[in-house]
Amino acid sequence: MEYKFGFIVHPLSLNDAYRSLRFMKGWPPALAHRVLRWLPPFKISEIVGIESAHGRANGYFVSTNLTSRQILKLPQRYVLRKIIKSGQLAERLGVRLIGLGAMTAVVGDGGVTVARHLKTAVTTGNSYTVATALEATGKAAELMGIDLEQAEVMILGATGSIGSACAQLLARDGVNYLTLVARDQRRLENLALKIMHDTGVSCKVTGKVKAAARRARVIVAVSSSAETLLEPEDLQPGAVVCDVARPRDISSRVGCRDDLLVIEGGVIEVPGDVNFNFNFGFPPRLAYACMAEAMILTLENRFENFSLGRELRLDKVMEIRRLARKHGFRLAGFRNNEKFVTGEQIARIKKNVSNRLNLRCSPVAGNPSDQS
Length: 372
Fold this sequence. Notes:
α6 (126-143) crosses α11 (314-327). The longest helix has 19 residues, at 343-361. This protein has helices at 14-20, 29-38, 68-73, 76-92, 112-116, 126-143, 161-172, 185-199, 209-215, 289-299, 314-327, 343-361, and strands at 3-9, 42-52, 55-63, 97-100, 121-123, 152-156, 177-181, 204-206, 218-221, 240-243, 261-264, 267-269, 272-275, 286-288, 330-331, 335-336, 339-340. The chain contains twelve helices and 17 strands. Helices cover 38% and strands 20% of the residues. The N and C termini lie far apart (82 Å). It has a six-stranded mixed sheet. By secondary structure, the chain is of the alpha/beta class.
């Protein structure tokens, strides 16, 4: 039997809204934002063809229409009401589970209030996002010759549900030099104390994003900011950055650097001949990990509130990773700026880093102190 899930999305920016709602193209931003605020939720597309050795599933994309900036700036009660109405539309379409995408998973209490107002099970997808972000970061660091256990590793957005779980799991896995970065100093210190108690790892905490980034060899970026937080000049040569945030934490200008490995976190290959009937910027059969979590649970007939709240259960991260493998979901290589990162590109990045380090260490021609 095929079960259905719903997945709630929204335009990350006004440009995304113009692409999906073509009647608004050319409208001034103030008018477009006003219309998006009052536009009711609607079904974007039907998702078909998800199939593993253990089951089949279909689903729907439902848009709540608000941009990332609106979700953060508008009154929280209003935003939650819009998300709940989107969930109710998905329920009328006959779904058994609803996934919350991008900023809809962040606002308020991480989906708890939304779940309370719906009859259907709800998940944010954050557990599988954590699992795949750490898998991608580990593989990328290994390819760049970085020993994660001894490297300076920074978690940007460490007090969020994804960031907190990433930090705790990295410490459990033996990463010794963690820097936790977020705005709320008290919550940062509480997280650092918990990690020290559970693992013995002493974490640095700071709200100074750019200063911390300049020291980091590896960065996992998972903030809930609507703005870019790091520019290319904030990153050291040879750094590995896994940008999980939607919208992105790392500036699109990072493409001007040929000595960094920046990858998108949580890009997953979905089993079966899947058709999303909606272009969200990925090649066929690829989806975000948060989307994939709703698919995995539906294939497994697990219609329950799974990843909810400000604190993720680490056992849920391990469980969804196991279920993903069972159903044939897997990391789809590395991507950045809507393109795959090849092995040849990684080799060039390593070579560029090595060349620049050699230049920096070589004596300056003509310097009397270097001459015999």
